[in-house]
Amino acid sequence: MILIIFLRGVLAAFLVIIAMPLPGVMAMTLDSFLEQVLSGSEDLRAIRQDIQVLDLEISARDLELAPTMSVGLQKFWDNRPSSSSNRKLSGQSTEILLSKPTATGTRLDASSYLETADYLSTDDAQSLLNWQLGVSQSLWQDAFGRQTALRRERDWNEQQSRLLALLLQRQEALAVFEELYWDIAATRQELVIREENLERSRRILSWIEERFNRSAAERVDILQAQALVSGRELQLQLAADTLKASQARLKEQISFPGDLVPEDMDLENERPLVSLAARADFAPEYPVLIRSLQSRSEAGLLKAKARLASDQLKPRLELGYSYGQQGFHPSLSGARDQAFSRHNDYHQIGIVFSVPLGRSLIRKARESADIAASSGEIRAQKLERQSSIQWSELERTLSEQKQRLGIARELSRLQHDKSREERLRFEKGRSTAFQAITFEQDAAESQLLVLEQLRQLRQTEARARLFVMRGSVAP
Asked: What pTM value is reported for the model?
């Protein structure tokens, strides 16, 4: 019997030792743990890069307003007769065009055209040089840059929506890591508590064996005490296995050096809910669900798309003006001199009007965009209502859990006092082994109940990470 008790003690001590930090390993607070998660998690690093990609992608969409240059080179041979000439010719031409659209719907153009031709039948040569400056302004469709403003509004809402989707992924990952942290912290403390419970059960077994040797206890009392010891050894082993499984889950998610050793007092540290909410400079001053704010951005995106589609289906009316000069001379230098002479200039002004046909198709396209915007608004309103309710429910749940924690602490104190008094009565022969063991089990369960309430309280706080309020987005 003594050997069995000794071996059981060695096993229990080993289980507790594996839960203790190794020499030189500092206990890690939740904040330091999450900092390591942010820098070490491949998923979170990828999300940070996705945010950078999103910013660059949206910024690059103004590329349609960037200047463009086109160059055309041509070599030609023309043997066709015409009403004015029956001469064959060959030559080459070069055309350069610079164009710059603006955000106000104005387009600036500058072009130059050079052609040199050799008349094969007469061995004559001619050079043509032309340059032109032009400006055009949209007056109906995309009037004074309306589409650019609508596109930027669309892009802004799209950027916020996609940014919030990435932020939600980030916060969900942090919430999962935090819950894992609390699981490991609670399990490590559970190991300590169960080891203490096991030691108390061994002392009870020793007292009962001593009483049995004095014929003051029965065989069934020894069996009940032995069952208590075996049960607590099993519970200790299960807790140790749970800790190993949690550590393995952590290492699946992040390359973590060694085992996580949470700070012992972290479970006791209460945190304001708003301090856990994510931050975004376009969020409201009060906490809202990230998914709700994302839905609002999606609704804005659909509205901007509807207005943009409506404008794109309008008739096109464009006013244009151009000024240029042209030179034509047998020599290239002569053509150049003429091209920069006011005697060879020209002016053009005009209006271009075009309208899409098929009004039924136009009406369907507009209705489709309007209905999509309406459905997006409906979803956004629903999520806004849910967001308000869920934040209130989160605060209510935390308040109730704090009350349960206080009750559990008081219950644990009473159960331990009761168990201590019952052990004293048992040692004096004024109580039964069954009564002492029952009271000991109640005290042990009440202590674990306090630990479970703490774990649930901290994990409930972590749900606040799924909300967002105004502030700078964390890197």
From this structure: 0.79
